[in-house]
Every structure is written in C-alpha cells, then in structure tokens.
Request: fold
Amino acid sequence: MHGKADGCGDLIAFDLTGGEAPDCSHFETLLDIGPDISPRAAIADKGYSSKDNRAAARARGITPAIGPKVSSRAIAMSPRTSVKRAGLM
Reply:
C-alpha cells in the first residue's frame, strides 16, 4: 500500500499494489490521486528517490523532499532542508 497524507498525517488517498511492487514507480500515481488540493511539498522516503520522481513533482509545482538512496552519488538536499525551503516549517 502506498499512502498519501495531509500535513497532519491523516491518510487522504492510497494506491493498493502487489507486495513486490517498487515504491518508486507509484510516486506519480500518489501525486495525482485524492482530493483536488495543491500541495507545496511532497515528503517521501528513499524508496521514492529518483530523478524522474523529483522532476514529476516539480512539473506540478511541488517541492520534492525525498531522501536520497544510500547508493546515490548525487549530492541531495536533506528532506528537512527541503521542507524548510518550501515554507512548511
């Protein structure tokens, strides 16, 4: 199950998938499902870390705050810093 929550942590939408489904491929689905809202940031764990997911969020005007994968060589901004820049803290 891949979930989408509001700023208070309440679940507002979810995408039910098979147990072997990778997180990364469901990020865009999560951006598109649920109530018609305009989030300022998308906060996700490293399972959703990819250039394509960050680009998909930015294309929708959403600041991605996604932790980098340990194996990633790219220098990424920490999720906490991204959230601060998005004005959510």
Helices lie at 27-32, 51-59, 79-85. The chain has a mean pLDDT of 81.
